[in-house]
Design goal:
The chain contains four helices and eight strands. It is an alpha+beta fold and 235 residues long. Keywords: Membrane, Signal, Transmembrane, Transmembrane helix.
Length: 235
Amino acid sequence: MRGTRIAGAVLLAGTVTGLAAGPAQAQEYRYWSFWDGKGGTWTYATEGPATQRPADGAVAGFRFTVGADSAAAGKPRTAAGFDAICGDTPAKEGRKRIGIVLDFGTAADAPGGERPPKARTECAQVSEDASAGEALAAVARPLRYDANALLCGIAGYPKAGCAESVNGSEKGSKDGSESKGSGADAAPSTGAAEGRAGGGDGSGDGGPSAGLLGGVAAVVVLGAAAVWQARRRRG
């Protein structure tokens, strides 16, 4: 009986450890991601466009993509160069210029029945206290938000839907060549949302974390060893 109990505990530990080692499948979503252009490169935004208030000379990028989180999100494919975007727009007193890059994504990332518009850049000239969302609205209407203030559509694209889940057969492409498929019950933190997303680091993984399962396995193993030692002393 004693050997059976210990063997059962060790077997359970091995089963839990095996679960911990198995890869978690992250649910992916189709959504607009939000980026900061700095030094000609793109960095995932740490807050949404309604709260971010960029300075004159900043560049904000928006990319329609498919991914589970910020690490998987496709960056805008246009360079983040302010001079190239706003060089022909003269400065005005009491106003600031924000370069806006709109990348509507690839055909593979598009919702069924829709084709992404051609990427474009705009120079938004707005009040000095304007947010990135207000700069976007100045050059890319109509914008569409959901009840949680998640940015769902820019310049009318896509026509419907908002951060809907994408199953394995619908996976899109980051850059038109790399296949990928944006957890389980919640949309990714896009950076383009006010209220649901701020830093682009939230996504479900469809199951318990490997760290949690590994911890459970360790507890089971230690418990089995303690029982064995106690019974050995009594014997």
